[in-house]
């Protein structure tokens, strides 16, 4: 089992101290993980402490510890993101769309706005941004692939048609898509992405990984056993960890 999406510092709730790192790694051990991937939000990059994580990780020889980053993708920021990524030797980088043209759409107070929008146009724009993120050559992984559904607003058009170009680009670039379990705790109440999309991901041969999106140590590994079981039932054979940007395959 892997958890390749955890936020050590949450939303700047705590610092990357040795004690906090140990809490995450202890929980990873309790959950039986083989690899954990730290992926703090890019806007807290000043709190990153890669050397300390590597040092504490030596106390856990049974656990592979990867260090990545979750980046808020905006097409106008590509240069800035590139500069930031060059400053740190990350094992992996998650590209996530949380915002479109200045609208940060995943804040709880945005729920009403979702219901006012034309759902098909909203989904089209969202997946266009995901497609641009995939094409940017900045990322190894695409985060919560269908996040735009979080408040339960569904499109009229078939989701696979809406997501087609984004999936095509992800496949072309050899990127990984995560099954992110945090969607279960949002109004939509299901994983990102939905099962129909996972089936299409498998059909295209796009590799997958698992992530809890934990913003606290107690959530590390949450729901990942059942998520792994779902992937297995859909015929997926392995999931992806990372080491210095290289994929490592873990049989399910
Ligand atoms: Zn995210
Ligand atoms: Zn996250």
Automatic annotation (TrEMBL):
It holds the Pfam family PHP. Pathway: Amino-acid biosynthesis; L-histidine biosynthesis; L-histidine from 5-phospho-alpha-D-ribose 1-diphosphate: step 8/9. It comes from the Bacteria. Residues 4-182 form the PHP domain. Its EC number is 3.1.3.15. Signal peptide: none annotated. Keywords: Amino-acid biosynthesis, Histidine biosynthesis, Hydrolase. GO terms for cellular component: cytoplasm. One of its GO terms (molecular function) is histidinol-phosphatase activity. InterPro entries: Histidinol_P_phosphatase_HisJ, PHP_dom, Pol/histidinol_Pase-like. It catalyses: L-histidinol phosphate + H2O = L-histidinol + phosphate. One of its GO terms (biological process) is L-histidine biosynthetic process. NCBIfam families: hisJ_fam (TIGR01856), PRK07328.1 (NF005596). Belongs to the PHP hydrolase family. HisK subfamily. PANTHER family: HISTIDINOL PHOSPHATASE-RELATED (PTHR21039), HISTIDINOL-PHOSPHATASE (PTHR21039:SF0). This is Histidinol-phosphatase. It comes from Desulfitobacterium dehalogenans (strain ATCC 51507 / DSM 9161 / JW/IU-DC1).
